[in-house]
Amino acid sequence: MGSVSNLKLGQHVNEAEAARADLYGLLAALFYSPPSEILLAVLAAAQMDGENALDAAWNAFVQCAASTSAAAVHEEFLELFVDRDQQKLELRATYYLEPFLRIDEQLALRADLQLLDLPEGLLIAEVEDHIASLCEVMRYLISAEANLSLRQATQKKFFLAHMQTWVPQLCAAIRAHPRARLYASLAVLANVFFETEMQAFKLSKVVRQDAEP
Q1: Close Cβ partners of 18 (under 8 Å, ≥ 6 residues apart)
Q2: Nearest to residue 201, comparing CAs of 159, 172, 167?
Q3: Rounded to two decimals, what is the model's pTM?
Q4: Coil, strand, or helix at residue 92?
Q5: Which of 23, 58, 32 is nearest to 44 (CA)?
Q6: pLDDT by residue (tens digit) across 33-74?
Q7: pLDDT, tens digit, for every residue of 104-138?
Q8: Number of DSSP helices (H) and strands (E) in the chain, helices first
Q9: How many CB atoms are closer than 10 A to CB 187?
């Protein structure tokens, strides 16, 4: 078991990339454990001025954070992700895949993680296909000491291979849970963010194709 890492974002990471890394880090933290009183207070004061869909989802999440307590969110986290009843939600990729694909995905993920040569302790959850660990990997890849095109290519390959196919189902399941409150708002934010990532990765392919002679 690890803890959410505090990666140092170097000068090679621009403001937009740093914001992506921070959001992946926040998702990793909140999907791994409920927020502390301090984190909840920080979130409650973190309104944004933008007008796009991601900004709107963020501000709705912030408003939700401001209207609850750490104790209430802790209870919500237990009800959604820990208590073993019929409404418990799984945060692992393999749960959302067809049974015949699960072993192949686990093997492929482990192979890709070995190739990435991640720092020890980066995978914060007990299992590598947990959404918290995958978000933390994406945070690391954004922050890695490599040129921008190489970082983006690695991010895209990892996201499309190990997140794109199932994160929308996870977000939908959380939103639909009758006891989800703050985490329902977080799921909306996560879904908008993941959709933004998908579109950006698709656009990067179109841009490269257009640039070819």
Answers
A1: 9
A2: 159
A3: 0.87
A4: strand
A5: 58
A6: 999 999 999 999 998 888 899 999 999 999 999 999 999 999
A7: 999 999 999 999 888 877 777 778 999 999 999 99
A8: 9, 0
A9: 25
